[in-house]
Design goal:
With 152 residues, the chain is mainly alpha-helical. The chain has two domains: 31 residues; 116 residues, de novo design (two linked rop proteins), CATH 1.20.1440. Helices cover 76% and strands 0% of the residues. The protein is built from five helices and no strands. α3 packs antiparallel against α4 and α4 packs antiparallel against α5.
């Protein structure tokens, strides 16, 4: 036979389990909000890529300063800029739009890199690390987008 104390303990344990399984995930207490866009890992990685591209293009031909060099630098910088702008928006739909723009800028940057490879400004060994970082950033940005989509 159960004593009142053991039934109470069992009920209490079940109540704690229900609270933990239902309320804690709802409150999302395990995820800390960022106070500033510079705290976001996707922004940090995007900024690192922009700096890499800037340094990488310093040796491009001077006749491309206002051509592909400028386009590649602007596309690379646009990735982090759109993430920052999205962070500053209040509404989820607005945030998502800027994260979509950022994803588009990743693809634009990759396209410019492929062009530079094909015309001989860079070689595969030079472009591979940046391209791998862009692909990884795209995966991370897609996770952020999916998370926001599930909340809207």
């Amino acid at each position: 036979m159960f004593s009142n104390k053991s039934i109470t303990n069992i009920l209490f344990d079940q109540l704690i389990l229900v609270i933990h399984l239902n309320i804690i995930p709802f409150l999302n207490l395990t995820h800390m909000a960022y106070n500033d866009f510079t705290e976001m890992p996707v922004w940090q990685k995007a900024m690192d890529i922009a700096v890499s591209i800037h340094l990488f293009t310093k040796d491009f031909p001077r006749n491309e300063d206002y051509g592909v060099t400028s386009q590649l630098r602007r596309a690379g910088l646009s990735i982090s800029s759109n993430i920052a702008e999205g962070f500053g928006r209040s509404h989820t739909k607005d945030k998502l739009n800027f994260y979509y723009f950022s994803r588009g800028s990743i693809m634009e940057t990759r396209s410019h890199l492929i062009y530079c490879l094909k015309v001989g400004y860079i070689n595969q060994a030079d472009v591979s690390p940046i391209n791998e970082n862009l692909v990884q950033l795209s995966v991370e940005l897609n996770k952020l987008i999916k998370t926001l989509q599930s909340r809207s």
